[in-house]
Write a structure and sequence with these properties.
Layout lengths: L2 H8 L4 H20 L1 E3 L8 E3 L1 H12 L1 H18 L6 H19 L9 H27 L9 H25 L3
Antiparallel strand pairs: 1-2
């Protein structure tokens, strides 16, 4: 075997992984872009979308790396194309770390995903990170540390909606062995 073939075999990310990750990015983007509600309660806008549910499903079923990549790229691309480009670098970090946190807690290689309790713990800790990350983002972007408080309820609702949709979907996909 030559060194090129050996290098390809030693890589942990193969063509199948690339295709799955690309599809997860697309699913997160579509769920964010086309299934959303703009919030009237936040001073600086705000959005509830199903992209968070897609991020949760990606992270729990496919692990921290794919979940982080899907969340970071899928939602940052949405920001760029939706007129919120200033948010894109922050979203990339916040959502990437969120996916990584959820996947780190809820995913195990042998079992694919742990039981419901671990999934919920992962979602809660990832959600706390998301709320804190977007609070800091608004503080930086708008130069005000009290106004971002108005975004916390919307972000919490977004996490709750994502969990309520994502967890049953995960259970169904696991039961049907469709992932």
């Amino acid at each position: 075997m030559n060194s090129t073939n050996q290098l390809v075999e030693n890589k942990k990310y193969n063509t199948k992984d690339l295709v799955i990750t690309s599809l997860l990015i697309a699913i997160v983007f579509v769920a964010t872009a086309f299934i959303n509600i703009r919030l009237p309660i936040s001073i600086n806008g705000g959005l509830i979308h199903l992209g968070t549910g897609a991020l949760i499903v990606s992270s729990i079923l496919y692990g921290k790396k794919k979940g982080a990549i899907a969340g970071a790229f899928g939602m940052a691309i949405f920001d760029i194309f939706s007129g919120w480009a200033a948010w894109a670098p922050f979203t990339f970090i916040v959502r990437g770390v969120m996916g990584y946190i959820i996947g780190s807690i809820a995913y195990t290689k042998g079992e694919k995903s742990r039981e419901l309790g671990w999934n919920i713990i992962g979602i809660i800790l990832g959600g706390i990170w998301m709320i804190a990350g977007y609070y800091a983002t608004e503080g930086i972007l708008y130069g005000n540390w009290s106004v971002p408080v108005t975004s916390i309820p919307g972000n919490a609702i977004q996490i709750l909606v994502g969990a309520v949709i994502g967890l049953p979907l995960i259970a169904t996909l696991k039961k049907l062995k469709l992932y």
